[in-house]
What we know:
Blueprint: H1 5-11, H2 21-34, E1 37-40, E2 48-51, H3 54-62, E3 67-68, H4 78-89, H5 104-113, H6 118-141, E4 145-147, H7 148-153, H8 155-165, H9 172-183, H10 196-219, H11 225-230, E5 233-234, E6 237-238, H12 241-272, H13 274-282, H14 287-298, E7 303-308, E8 312-314, E9 317-319, E10 324-328, H15 329-332, H16 367-381, E11 385-390, E12 395-396, E13 405-407, E14 409-414
Amino acid sequence: MSLTLEDAGRALADPAVYADDRRLHEALTLLRREDPVHRVEAPGYNPFWAVTRHADIMEVERQHGLFVNAPRPLLATAELDEVNRLRQEQGMSLRTLVHIDDPDHRVLRAIGADWFRPRAMRALESRVRELARRYVDRMAELGGECDFVQQIAVKFPLQVILSLLGLPESDFDRMLRLTQELFGGDDDERQRGTSAEEKLQVLFDFFAYFRELTAARRARPTDDLASTIANARVDGEPLNDLDTASYYVIIATAGHDTTSSTIAGGLHALVENPGELARLRADPGLMPLAVDEMIRWTTPVKEFMRTATDDCELRGVPIRKGDALLLSYPSANRDEDVFADPFRFDVGRDPNKHLAFGFGVHYCLGAALARIEVRAFFEELLPRLGSVELAGEPRGIATTFVGGLKRLPVRYTLRG
Length: 416
């Protein structure tokens, strides 16, 4: 039976669909072609408009006063939307950079911005490359076969973020578990529980950890990002506990989980496209382009939501004040109007105007760091890689927000 537009729209609210690239892109391709701004009414969810074309997503991102993050920055069930609404009214909801709008967004973003500028990234690069070597060495120690996601990809970027924040390696397992529970709330293997209360408990655990960190850095400031956040002031006053913890959460989670998804998805793409792997090994100068192609191909952030602050139109479709819009980044990054042969993995793709980091005022703060990490890892791996192949079935994470592969069994040979 052929897929209907209604089925395609509802697929965007089904976490299992995001674990299956074929199903996801079948739905997104139909929506782009037939109804790029599509009204979705999915069981258990409040209605929303699915925005699937690259140009329309950029238009929404440009008009950040007309289309705002609050009160529904991410796709969630109607039950969780209501819980979040009540917590917002009580001043107890998460306020990360992806939850808030100007003027608060501009002020809070500036707190950590210097840590992600080119000069700071150059200073961090030697540490990134040291860690990349450590994890390629670890692949060699594993004897030619591993689950690349679980044993390598999730660990390398987390170590980078721990270094940036100045957190001890002894906190590694705790950060990894909390991050996977936060982003894997819809995945049977990663979720802590299924109720809204159980999902919120993960945030409470994050807050408890970062409350202790804030107190420690205020008592004894150090030269790291954690100390910058803890001691930041807005209008002469320190950040409150909620804003401080929220800042840590976005850095400590999105700062590594998205990159690990790109590294794992990038290796999978190279395994599945041996001609492109050979091309990249023959011409290492292609690596910057290959990194952006891996980012486009995997698109770890699946969506953000925006809410219209006034009546308007998008691609001729009337949008009412208060309507919610889902910006589908995997769809934008396969848009036939923007990318030649968009379903081909091309390590030399140029130009590559992907939207995996968003666009406009909410462009990803850590984009430069993510590119450095992915590049450093593959520049360390590929010169030593003799052969690589799948050793089992890759498996994706069930999610509607952030995710990628959770299993990638590979068999390989390494030199050195």
